[in-house]
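Lab meeting, item 3. Inverse folding demo.
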């Protein structure tokens, strides 16, 4: 079951899934980023097995030690990049994008209010006001439309 379908489950179904470890494990293992992680982990384990096997057959070999060091370095890089990917995926959830667009739209709305205040206080000419206000409102409405689109798809 994809994670997007969790929202369609009733409370009883969610509680049933949480109570049944096999169902919960099945759900977690069906998530795309978990599957991707498991594939990468399997490949890393396979490579480590090959390195260990070669070490046993070859004994102490300077070239092999250099390769092992390189493998360890690449493993560390892989783990760091996997963590970065996980964080980016969290940042790009629909809820997070919605919140960012909402904050950005509110900020532009405040800027529009400031432009209106400047115009009403006589600090800005009508031509400059019209241009600045129009630009900000276009951005505001664009962000609001994107925010509503995300809200309808959640």
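The presenter then showed the designed sequence:
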């Amino acid at each position: 079951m994809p994670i997007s379908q969790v929202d369609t489950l009733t409370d009883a179904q969610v509680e049933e899934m949480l109570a049944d470890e096999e169902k919960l494990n099945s759900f977690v293992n069906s998530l795309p980023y978990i599957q991707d992680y498991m594939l990468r982990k399997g490949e890393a384990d396979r490579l480590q097995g090959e390195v260990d096997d070669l070490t046993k057959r070859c004994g102490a070999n300077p070239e092999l030690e250099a390769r092992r060091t390189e493998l360890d370095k690449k493993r560390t890089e892989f783990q760091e990049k996997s963590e970065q990917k996980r964080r980016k995926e969290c940042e790009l959830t629909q809820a997070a994008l919605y919140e960012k667009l909402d904050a950005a739209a509110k900020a532009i709305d405040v800027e529009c209010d400031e432009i209106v205040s400047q115009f009403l206080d006589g600090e800005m000419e009508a031509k400059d006001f019209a241009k600045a206000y129009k630009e900000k409102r276009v951005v505001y409405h664009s962000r609001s439309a994107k925010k509503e689109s995300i809200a309808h798809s959640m």
